[in-house]
């Protein structure tokens, strides 16, 4: 590696040290360890689950899950659920939640950086767009029963994972934190009283390096320990011609340790701690396209670039490529995505009488240190944009599980508290006057004075305090051997209080005031500055009680056929705006937007779970409809001042669809799966939505007038004040999504070791979807299909395979973003090109 790529060279040395350490730690991987973990999970289940696993082991694939807070087979659970085992995650290279969507079609994950990550199920979860701390996640991420409130957890590598369960639909009567769209339940491998270990090393193109190791065993006859470590590094996929470096790289390190104390058969105490960090140079975008807005033509992208070039003789700015798949960018601001997350937990399980009492106590932290280029260009318009955050969360859950002949129940008590502090800075650069102000030939006009906006800085101080408490439970009544009725309920209290202060200083560091004295008006300079950033201060606070419930009826039509129907009345608690409020048409702050109403959710679902061909084939089918009132949406009117967008309520949203999952274990030599989802997610009523870019930027249409949408994309025409997007699809949701995979093997003896040579394929398809909260013709992302292959040899304690991902080198876009200012610029992030490499795993 030459000095041309200093960031890569710097990180490779650290990765090499980590690789050496991991190899020394483990010298031995996965298949035997995973088999032992599966066996342990089955043995630890209920008697019925264990018996069924034993009876079915010689036939189909038996999967034990904890979706209902007890161990049972996945086919017994009357919930739409996808279960991905640790070996499947490793074999397909889907090593975090972001990549997991390639195996679970109803899971949608989009990320422009770890903070701005959307995890949705069936199109619901979090508002699509830049993240605000003031709303709740609709999809809960749990690791060993501990709720992770920061969605950034989705971008970290899985660490010593046994399996991942993706539960679809509201889960509030079984999980501590209310989740309206579903839950991702991650189970890690636990300490064992048998000594075992595993290690894995992968290398590939783009200087890809990944190493994992875990070791577990007894310290005494009552205490066992397990420690795991993982590291990933990869060269960036986007070349920045300004910094002469590859950006959007991977640089991850994770550690996890667990200590199990088991004084007797009735009591176990598990102490766990984890720490993960990312330190990549990223995350940047590339030029994708320019679309016409309703701004005057002289204030749209091409004309603005020409004006800046004309004002700087000898300068001839142009993007390095108008083809996004050239993977070039020219971002001139500093980029960083420093990210740390971790915590400790104590889980106590005590068999008391006929049931089990569980206590989970946890503290977690998140430390986010970003630097971004928010104008998405090589021009110095926004010269600095960063919103570092520090978060602490505390949670306590008590849960009692009872299992009887006729009645099972779970009852729980949950408490949660978090605080998030953010210190934001956004600063304008010397090109900002030509970009943001109206043209003028007057040399004294701010348009011709770069110093008016250069150095103009908005410094934001904010915090969020959030408290939540809940009592929840679910009852299962076995009316007959075939019929079970399952009601559940939840009482929830939430309180949120926040503080936001924006202080604006000019290039000389002087604080500016945007409120003129009575009878006076702002000077031209001050008016220009206040049109970009306005001082703000708000302290929203609100609280709410909610009662929700669900009701499930399931019936065993035959020993291997389960039918179920569910109704759930759920909610998503209130939200507060934490990142700057929008401005009214008179350029005053709209304080009415400081809070948003809770969502009210009605969910209906029917499903069928079947096994046939002596349980070698599993076919599950579900159909659902979810109606939401006061849907919480992230919107942005194109103003620099609303730095990260803001929350608003859409009147009604509906999502409905059908999902199918098929798995075939034809023999010991061949397995296959295929999953598909049809999702129809729409705004049913959103009459006051922000307009898409093609209907923005012009002089506003008269107040009270019916919106005129006929001049979309025509410069110098009047823009609607708001747009009615009722009937349009929700952002980020593909109507059709599929995943599939197959593996065939044959017995072989290699280097005196008996084993199998195998060939595997997996892939996924997503139809087109829109990447803007108000759907735009400019942000429609075409559908794409990705295919991956692997071939290798495995035997007891050894697995060696080569792999290629995106084997056909498909060009595709992962995310599009509308640049602020209604200039028509659309930037985006392109998906990975073809990658290839090899993996070696050892275990004992």
Protein model, in words:
The protein contains 8 helices and 43 strands. It has a 22-stranded antiparallel beta barrel. Strands 3-8-9-6-7 form a 5-stranded mixed beta sheet. The chain has a 3-stranded mixed beta sheet with strand order 14-13-18. With about 850 residues, it is mainly β. The model is unreliable at about 1-60 and about 640-645 (pLDDT under 50). The longest helix is centred in the first third of the chain and has 21 residues, at about 5-25.
| Helix count from the secondary structure assignment | 8
Q: Number of DSSP strands?
A: 43
Alpha-carbon Rg, integer: 28 Å
> Could you tell me the mean pLDDT?
88
Regarding quaternary structure, how should these chains be classified?
single chain
Main β-sheet description: 22 strands, antiparallel, barrel
Q: Approximately how much helix is present in the residues?
A: under 10%
- Terminal CA distance: 36 Å
Write the topology of this structure.
Layout: H1 6-26, H2 30-43, H3 47-56, E1 64-65, E2 72-73, E3 81-85, H4 86-92, H5 97-100, E4 107-111, E5 117-121, E6 139-143, E7 146-148, E8 161-168, E9 182-188, E10 196-204, E11 208-218, E12 223-234, E13 238-240, E14 245-247, E15 250-264, E16 267-278, E17 286-290, H6 301-311, E18 328-329, E19 336-352, E20 355-371, E21 382-386, E22 389-403, E23 407-428, H7 432-436, E24 457-478, E25 483-505, H8 524-532, E26 536-538, E27 541-558, E28 561-572, E29 575-576, E30 595-596, E31 599-612, E32 617-635, E33 646-667, E34 670-685, E35 736-750, E36 753-766, E37 769-770, E38 780-781, E39 784-795, E40 798-805, E41 813-818, E42 825-830, E43 835-843
